[in-house]
Structure prediction request, 180 residues.
Amino acid sequence: MALRRIALRDFVIVRALELDLAAGFSVLTGETGAGKSILIDALQLALGSRDLLAARIPAVRPILSALGAPLGLSIELPRLPGKLTIESFELAGAGPAGVYKLDAVLRNRASHPVQWPAIELTLTDAFGGVVASKVLLPSDYQAGGRLEEGFPGNAEESVSLEIAIDEVVPSGYRAILFYP
Prediction:
């Protein structure tokens, strides 16, 4: 698969540019100020930031998909760990020994959907030492078809599940959100 044609309109100093690329290796040359870097910046913006652009401006998704398809690039929901927070988190015994109930409220502060994060739960002893750690993937806490839709923008999501923790009696815990 190869990029065969580039068309650029009204981008920085470029009013209109149509560039047909031959099969094989292409070299871009020109005088200083001709717009070579602008062309590369436009490609980087369209291809490198395609996930974020498609999430923020859904109308451009088909264009970005068509642009990336010949290069084997797909569009996914963006991963923005800096926009995700844990608003509340509680871990408590839930009946049988070794079974705990996890209740949390997660928040997406981005204005658009993002990928669901994983949750790392670390259990600690009385001195803060790690006694056990578990990674909860979105499929562990998000049931149904909502995984594909992503974590909605400007939204909170309640998470509640039971987890089994064998042979460990934790004194404390900590939780973080991350993308594997």
Summary: DSSP finds five helices and eight strands in the chain. The longest strand covers residues 84-93. The mean pLDDT is 85.
